Amino acid sequence: MIRVLLADDHAVMRECLLRILHAAQDFVVAGQAHDGVSALALTHDTPADVLVLDLTMPAGGGISLIERIRAASPQLRVLVLSMHTASHVMERAFKAGAAGYLTKECAGTELVAAVRKVAQGELYAGLGQAERQPQRLARLTELGRHDALTVRERDVLRRLATGATSRRIADELDLTPQTVSTHKKHILDKLGLENDAALIRYALRHGLADEPDDP
């Protein structure tokens, strides 16, 4: 079963989404939120696979809410459901960390397909651009992801990317190897990566291995 959270300031819309997902039978709606503040709290407290998020909510909604949710819950996939049909809004959502984007004009069957696809780790764009430009959308989702790293985590990432061992990193930064391992786990979680090889590729692709030491 796919665990889904719903965040929309209109109760009628949440009820419609709830009915559509329940009818599909392979979803569990684990919680609902009515504004930005409650959405952030919900995603922090309630384990789930996908958050269906309205962009235009009061009390801290908008693109910045995607960034805050992704920073706090990096494994949660965010599917934006918005009234905005302009492609530049969709691109901003992907840059902020969204995994999918749908307009509220979409049919219920498209919503179900989008949630399933996003839950499987894929991207979905209801404006039809995901199929035409999959690599471009994938690059958009990476932008700014490493901005969520702390200064110490960036130090560790840079050294890992140059091939340094955990023991060597621990010696250079005056840490224990266990602390370095903890930092590495946090880095993998925040970047949504699975292993050291993917981490090194990410660092090299974004030029993070060449960053100077923090003063």
From TrEMBL:
Q: Does the keyword Phosphoprotein apply?
A: yes
Name any one GO molecular function. DNA binding
The HTH luxR-type domain extends over: 142-207
Single Gene Ontology BP term? Answer: phosphorelay signal transduction system
One Pfam family name from the record? GerE
Q: Which InterPro entries match?
A: CheY-like_superfamily, NreC/VraR/RcsB-like_REC, Sig_transdc_resp-reg_C-effctor, Sig_transdc_resp-reg_receiver, Tscrpt_reg_LuxR_C, WalR-like
Looking at the record, the residues that make up the Response regulatory domain are 3-119
Keyword Zinc-finger in record: no
Chain positions with 4-aspartylphosphate modification: 54
SUPFAM superfamilies xref list: C-terminal effector domain of the bipartite response regulators (SSF46894), CheY-like (SSF52172)
Q: Which key words tag this protein in UniProt?
A: DNA-binding, Phosphoprotein
| Recorded superkingdom | Bacteria
Against PANTHER family, the record matches this protein to:
TWO-COMPONENT RESPONSE REGULATOR
Q: What is this protein called?
A: DNA-binding response regulator
Give the species.
Trinickia soli
